[in-house]
Design brief:
Layout (H helix, E strand, L loop, with lengths): L4 H15 L1 H4 L6 H12 L2 H14 L16 H13 L7 H25 L3 H10 L3 H8 L1 H19 L1 H9 L3 H13 L1 H12 L5 H12 L5 H22 L6 H24 L15 H13 L15 H15 L3 H10 L11 H13 L8 H36 L4 H28 L3 H8 L1 H21 L8 E4 L2 E5 H8 L3 H15 L5 H17 L5
InterPro entries: GatZ_KbaZ_carbometab (IPR050303), PTS_IIC_man (IPR004700), PTS_IID_man (IPR004704)
Subcellular location: Cell membrane
Main location: membrane
Length: 552
């Protein structure tokens, strides 16, 4: 297949656009989305959807770092794999084989991204100097430096993949057939790695019964994924209600964090008079207090800027530089004097690491306390204390519950050749996450500092319920999406007398996929294997056992 120059440019632009989704949290950097876009550009939507579905399931758990390792990047199968699957379809390369071939590129892309994060480490200090000099344009550029480098790298990756597709095809064509078949088998096994990674985070004694529920419903009753999610959610809801009935106290965390926050209520009385008397500037911090209605409007706008939280992500202060950029317009409104603005802007560049969807809780707390006459430094300890619980709850809820559900739904539709798969995935998950951001802003503004304690006490059962649903769904996917089939059989007199796969299907349907996923889970949880070792093992098992005639 010939790829024109304009198609190479479009693939490059599409890759640049999608790869920034890693930072904006819009879930554009998913195999399901990227491969579908490549299919549209290259004129083969069905192959793009097939590649997207296979890659999405295989990389489902790869957004989670395990044991300190850096997970492979889905740009590999989403872009490079899609180009290979489309351009080499006539040479016997299907989506599973393209997935296996694209894995080295997934590793290379992640190394490139790690390099970008390392380069960006010096940006916070440069941004502070820019603020001191009053060069706010340079400050904004530095605060968005990481995402700009992402976009540039993405264009190069996409353009090069399409422009040199023929060269990649020639290289792959030189690979012997036994290796090609083995890589195809390994590609069908790779989803087990992602499922094992997610289960290693979610699965425990309190979620084990739901793993059995998911396996049994999928293997013996052929219940679809959505049905399993609904059934498990109903059971989890019942258990949650029982837990809520037994535990009426929100927990000790509320007392610990509220103790630090008591000063805010005392401070409000001291500065309320300033607000009532025309918004006079507080002489201590330089803040110009705003009426609640206007502050609420600014807080809501700041919540929408949570999409910028990782635009300047770096290995120095992580999200700290971007956090200050999120607050920048609000700080300008609260601090009319430039010296006060500079002080608060630099103070907000301290360490920050929180899930972007729960960031509005911190920003609403920050703005409310500033409006009360406290400086950012006065409430830094409170915000830092809240980061851990909010990051844990946010990551568990989004990565291990919301994202897998939408991913599996979108992938199942894409497997059927429906463009509704990536569309529903993008619209569904982004609508839900936008609602989550806005609701968190409302909660943060209304409940203030005690919110973290309330969440830690009341939402722990909800987090457990989410993990239970996730475990049931992943267990069912191990049956339906990991394709491991035995080819061992006994024949006599020209007839097949015994088939190992038929025997297993009769006694334990989906036994091989579930066993292999469980083995990877054991190696990950008990033996502390890294993700790359698991992938390497899977590739080796697929190639060796296919070559030996054990696996189909």
């Amino acid at each position: 297949m010939e790829i024109h120059l304009w198609q190479c440019v479009l693939v490059g632009l599409w890759t640049a656009f999608c790869i920034t989704g890693m930072l904006t949290g819009t879930y554009l950097t998913r195999c399901l989305v990227m491969a579908a876009g490549v299919g549209v550009i290259l004129g083969d939507v069905q192959t793009g959807l097939a590649m997207g579905a296979v890659g999405e399931l295989a990389f489902l758990g790869f957004g989670v770092s395990s044991g300190g390792s850096v997970p492979p990047n889905p740009v590999g199968p989403g872009i490079v794999g899609a180009v290979l699957a489309i351009t080499m379809k006539g040479q016997g390369i299907d989506a599973e084989a393209a997935l296996a071939y694209s894995f080295p590129f997934a590793i290379l892309v992640q190394f490139l991204i790690t390099g970008i994060y390392t380069i960006s480490t010096g940006f916070p200090e440069k941004a502070r100097r820019a603020v001191d000099a009053g060069r706010y344009g340079r400050y904004c550029l530095l605060a968005n430096g990481t995402i700009l480098m992402f976009a540039g790298a993405g264009f190069v990756i996409g353009f090069a993949s399409a422009f040199h597709a023929q060269g990649l095809g020639n290289l792959i064509a030189a690979i012997p057939e036994w290796l090609t078949g083995g890589l195809g088998t390994a590609g069908k096994m790779l989803p087990a790695v992602g499922f094992a990674v997610i289960l290693s985070v979610m699965c425990g004694w309190d979620t084990g019964p739901f793993v059995i529920l998911g396996y049994g419903a999928a293997a013996y009753l052929n219940v679809p994924v959505i049905g399993i999610a609904l059934f498990s959610a109903a059971f989890a809801w019942i258990l949650y209600e029982r837990k809520e009935g037994a535990d009426v106290h929100p927990g000790e965390a509320e007392e610990n964090i509220s103790a630090k926050a008591n000063g805010l209520e005392n401070t409000k009385a001291g500065v309320a008079e300033n607000t009532e008397n025309g918004g006079k500037t507080d002489r201590t911090t330089g803040v110009q207090p705003l009426p609640d209605t206007e502050l609420k409007r600014i807080s809501r706008r700041t919540a929408l800027r949570a999409y910028f939280l990782q635009n300047g992500y770096n290995y120095g202060n992580y999200e700290g530089l971007s956090y200050s950029f999120v607050l920048f317009p609000a700080l300008r409104r609260l601090f009319p004097a430039e010296k006060d603005l500079k002080r608060e802007l630099k103070d907000s560049m301290s360490y920050c690491s929180v899930n972007p969807n729960f960031l509005p809780i911190l920003t609403s707390l920050h703005l409310t306390s500033l409006n009360c006459g406290l400086s950012g430094g006065d409430t830094r300890d409170i915000r830092t204390a809240m980061m851990g619980p909010l990051a844990g709850i946010g990551d568990s809820l989004v990565q291990f519950c919301i994202a897998p559900v939408f991913s599996t739904l979108g992938a199942s539709l894409a497997e059927q050749g429906s463009m509704a798969g990536p569309v529903i995935f993008l619209l569904g998950i982004n609508s839900l996450l936008l609602a989550l951001k806005l609701s968190n802003e409302a909660l943060g503004f209304r409940l203030g500092n005690s919110l973290a304690g309330r969440m830690q006490g009341y939402l722990a059962p909800l987090s457990l319920a989410a993990r239970r649903v996730g475990c049931a769904v992943i267990a069912s996917l191990a049956v339906s999406s990991v394709d491991i089939r035995a080819s061992v059989s006994l024949s006599g007199q020209g007839k097949e007398l015994f088939s190992l796969q038929d025997f297993l299907d009769t006694l334990f349907p989906g036994a091989l996929p579930v066993f292999y996923t469980a083995m990877l889970f054991y190696l990950l949880r008990k033996k502390k294997w890294g993700m790359y070792r698991l992938v390497g093992l899977t590739m080796a098992v697929g190639i060796v056992l296919h070559g030996a005639g054990v696996l189909a």
